[in-house]
Amino acid sequence: MGPPGSGKGTLSNLCVKNLGWSQLSTGNLCRKHIAEQTEIGKLIDLALKSGKLISDELITDMVKDWLFEIIDSVDSVILDGFPRTLPQAQAFGKIITEKMSTMCAKVVKFSIPDEKVIARVGSRFVCKNKNCQTVYSLVENSNLAPKRSMICDNCDSELIRRSDDSVETITERLVTYHKHEQALIDYYVDTGFSVVDVNAERSIESLFEEFKRINGV
Ligand code: AP5
Ligand code: MG
Q1: Which of 6, 33, 39, 85 could form a cystine bridge with 110, CB 3.0-4.6 A?
Q2: Which residues, listed in sequence order, are joined to residue 80 by a DSSP beta bridge?
Q3: What is the spatial distance between Cα 9 and Cα 5, in angstroms, rounded to a whole number?
């Protein structure tokens, strides 16, 4: 868990690429529904563009479908942007207890000041291909920049801005994140999940090393 722009997607990309983990990004799933104009996509388009959360029920159903489809074929999953509210965390706790009792879950919380993430999001570009959605930074000399200008390193698609990356929307998303953060942490602590707080205001290499250490990989 972590505020918008704190680096959840970027770190997840590294876990997929370097550790062979599977990434479940609820934001990516939502954007894919919208791009494919599914019934769900039509329902959530406006909320996503304006930085509002999608209903807990819809998100939890999406996560269940995704998890149950892949769970027998993967060892490790990184949940990027889920759970994000107390009802989602409770639903996830129930899934773990009832259906995946052999699974061990750990919560890693990214901490970073709001003004830093607003600056980061201002320089963010993402791959247009909704099966890819790799995240880049166009900050000068960043090692998170694409190798070729505005082209995705992984799939050669064009890079675009996200529709919810305006300053107004990111500000709204930050308010929403902070509104739910403490209730989530309290729930995790009360139910015995391990929660590790990580300073996300540092290089992605250093963050990834710390993340691997926390997870014993
Ligand atoms: P989602 O896509 O999950 O957005 P978010 O949580 O707001 O987070 P972001 O994706 O904006 O940031 P990030 O932490 O992934 O940072 P990133 O790695 O890109 O959700 C979008 C929307 O979908 C929500 O608003 C909601 O409508 C809906 N939704 C999704 N999940 C939901 C849920 N569970 N419940 C209800 N609704 C839901 O990095 C940002 C930038 O910084 C990039 O340019 C990157 O290159 C750069 N960067 C990353 N790390 C570093 C670093 N260490 N140093 C310097 N730059 C860095
Ligand atoms: Mg993300």
Answers
A1: 6
A2: 25
A3: 8
Contact at 8 Å (CB) between 18 and 209? no
- Where helices occur in 20-152 by DSSP H, the ranges are 26-35, 39-49, 56-70, 86-99, 114-122
Which residues are paired to 5 by β-bridges? none
Give the closest residue to 24 by CA, choosing from 72, 57, 65, 85.
65
Quick one: how far is CA 117 from the chain centroid? 14
Nearest residue to 198 (alpha-carbon basis) of 1, 26, 19, 9: 1
- The residue contributing the CA closest to ligand 1 atom 49 is 7
* pTM recorded for the entire structure: 0.97
Name the residue among 69, 103, 74 with its Cα closest to residue 15. Answer: 74
Q: What is the atom index within ligand 1 of the atom nearest the CA of 52?
A: 27
- Using CA atoms, how far apart are residues 109 and 200, in angstroms rounded to an integer? 9
Q: Is the CB of 51 under 6 A from ligand 1?
A: yes
Report whether residue 4 contacts ligand 1, using a CB cutoff of 6 Å: yes
Question: 109 near 195, Cβ under 8 Å?
Answer: yes
Residue 202: strand pairing partners: none
d(CA 135, CA 128): 10
Instruction: Give yes or no for residue 100 having a pLDDT over 80.
Output: no
Ligand located closest to 49 CA: 1
